[in-house]
Specification:
299 residues; three-stranded antiparallel β-sheet; DNA polymerase, domain 1; mainly alpha; 13 helices; hpI Integrase, Chain A
Length: 299
Amino acid sequence: MLDEQIDRFLNHLKAERSLSQNTIESYSRDLGKLSVFLNKEKVFDAADCSSANVSDFIRFIGRSGLSGRSQARALVVVRQFFKYLVEEKELKANPAFRIEAPKFLNKLPVFLTSEEVESLLSSPEVNDALGLRDSAMLETLYSSGIRASELCSIATGDVNLEIGYLSVIGKGGKQRIIPIGDIAVEKLKAWLSEGRPKIVKNKRTDLLFLNRNGGPLSRVGLWKKIKYYMKKTGIMKDISPHKLRHSFATHLLENGADLRSVQSLLGHADISTTQIYTHVNRERLRQIYDKYHPRGTRR
């Protein structure tokens, strides 16, 4: 019964909420953990789940090593699941409604310095199709600040190289138009004219970036490429495609961009999500002050 209720909720999200497949999969994992936990507690129907059960579940996933942030996310998912069942008249009340989320510290995002970005972006050798792809791919990520999933789903028709813009569909199915720089435009032109035709061959696909076999480029494939070039350039930071997004936002703010504009470029629904980059800025200023002011170093 409980698994059937979870399936109905997930189908509802797919049909009515236009959430991304990645988000749906994340919801499914959290609710799968809830189902396993409640079954062990002999709770087989959401109607029999109490607030104490939900609290015990959150404590259980915490003891299993899940971070405070991940516990808080799981609670949001569980809360939405029970809210859906209340709206469907299957429950009278939401047992997760008054459960407090675990406290967690906001970690400052890891980002590359301008010098590290320059080194990374210049690392692909553009003497073959894959090198042209990688060069265009890295430049596009940093130039636009888009998510890895957004980059992998861009079609050739989503790119306007005449005026330098990309069109992407972000979280919640929302479209946004993002400017890209002249260097990104030139590298995309080289990829489209010299590199992509050699990989796509006779296959019919409108995806902008492809794997070596002409198929869709996966997020894992993109991550492996970035790790490869990080190692090649000797940058020791733990960097993923999302860290280039962090670098994009941080460098915009460091150079005077306003927070609202950065929020719009990143596609954040809530400006509080963007505000973490102001903390990065303050930390960066503190480091500069301590390094260069004769009385700046704190003991």
